[in-house]
Amino acid sequence: MADSGESVNKDMKVFVVDSQALPPPVSVRRDDPRLSVIYLLLAVALLGVFIEAGLIWHLYSRPAGPSDIQKVEYIKGEKHTLPSSSHDSNEVLPEKPPKAESKPAAFLQIASPPFSRNGVLPWRSDSFTVFLRGLQYKNNSLHIQQDGYYYIFSKISHMENCNFFKHQVMQRTERYNSMAIELMQSSRFICVTNLSQSRGNSYLGGIFHLLKGDSVFVKVSNSSQVHGDVYENFFGAFMV
Ligand SMILES: *[C@@H]1O[C@H](CO)[C@@H](O)[C@H](O)[C@H]1NC(C)=O
Ligand SMILES: *[C@@H]1O[C@H](CO)[C@@H](O)[C@H](O)[C@H]1NC(C)=O
Ligand SMILES: *[C@@H]1O[C@H](CO)[C@@H](O)[C@H](O)[C@H]1NC(C)=O
């Protein structure tokens, strides 16, 4: 009896100790409503991240639309549109300066003899160094074919024999009813008694805005005073 009671006591004791020392068993139940809400929020957040990643990828992989290119062309002031094959690049290229070879230019040498009754000097446009590009030469004048700013120059070698000498570059334009307008002038009056020293030079050069149809020519007060070789007397223009 005592033995069995003791063993019963021992058993009871162990049971009591166990039941007090261990915390009550907590089972993780999957149907807890709080946990379901957390899972739902996590799923929504992940979905949002994926959608955002997709939008960013779409934005960066979007090809340049034709509307962008037309905008660029409008800024550049060009009327024609780009070829449709250039969609693979949306880079804005800087505007190219006009090619120097395509700009109008001319260089003329004095005709010989340089005689002229009204003082408008005649030129030769057919020798080795002279040329005409984008400008016409007729009636002793250079005729402008393209609107723009032109540097016009003329050099004249003349005698200084107690005669007044005037060198002019003139313009004729419909804006002034085709009357001759003076652009540049130089005048000299020098008496040199030693004829071998009686040479003077006049150089004129300046930039002018000229329109298509305008013409420029060189006039002197007395064409008999013009002196020297073809490379001493010239007239030219070029677009700047
Ligand atoms: C030619 O030039 C002269 C002198 O500048 C001018 O009087 C004449 O009207 C011009 N002729 C023509 C056809 O342009
Ligand atoms: C004229 O000038 C030339 C060159 O300077 C000189 O050799 C000549 O002696 C001068 N003649 C006179 C008359 O002064
Ligand atoms: C023009 O120049 C020549 C040569 O120098 C001269 O003989 C003539 O008198 C000049 N004419 C006038 C109107 O000045």
TrEMBL record:
<dbReference type="GO" id="GO:0005615">
    <property type="term" value="C:extracellular space"/>
</dbReference>
<keyword id="KW-0812">Transmembrane</keyword>
<feature type="region of interest" description="Disordered">
    <location>
        <begin position="80"/>
        <end position="99"/>
    </location>
</feature>
<dbReference type="GO" id="GO:0005164">
    <property type="term" value="F:tumor necrosis factor receptor binding"/>
</dbReference>
<comment type="similarity">
    <text>Belongs to the tumor necrosis factor family.</text>
</comment>
<protein>
    <submittedName>
        <fullName>Tumor necrosis factor ligand superfamily member 14-like</fullName>
    </submittedName>
</protein>
<dbReference type="GO" id="GO:0006955">
    <property type="term" value="P:immune response"/>
</dbReference>
<keyword id="KW-0202">Cytokine</keyword>
<dbReference type="InterPro" id="IPR006052">
    <property type="entry name" value="TNF_dom"/>
</dbReference>
<keyword id="KW-0472">Membrane</keyword>
<keyword id="KW-1133">Transmembrane helix</keyword>
<dbReference type="GO" id="GO:0005125">
    <property type="term" value="F:cytokine activity"/>
</dbReference>
<dbReference type="Pfam" id="PF00229">
    <property type="entry name" value="TNF"/>
</dbReference>
<feature type="compositionally biased region" description="Basic and acidic residues">
    <location>
        <begin position="88"/>
        <end position="99"/>
    </location>
</feature>
<dbReference type="InterPro" id="IPR008983">
    <property type="entry name" value="Tumour_necrosis_fac-like_dom"/>
</dbReference>
<dbReference type="GO" id="GO:0016020">
    <property type="term" value="C:membrane"/>
</dbReference>
<feature type="transmembrane region" description="Helical">
    <location>
        <begin position="37"/>
        <end position="60"/>
    </location>
</feature>
<feature type="domain" description="THD">
    <location>
        <begin position="104"/>
        <end position="240"/>
    </location>
</feature>
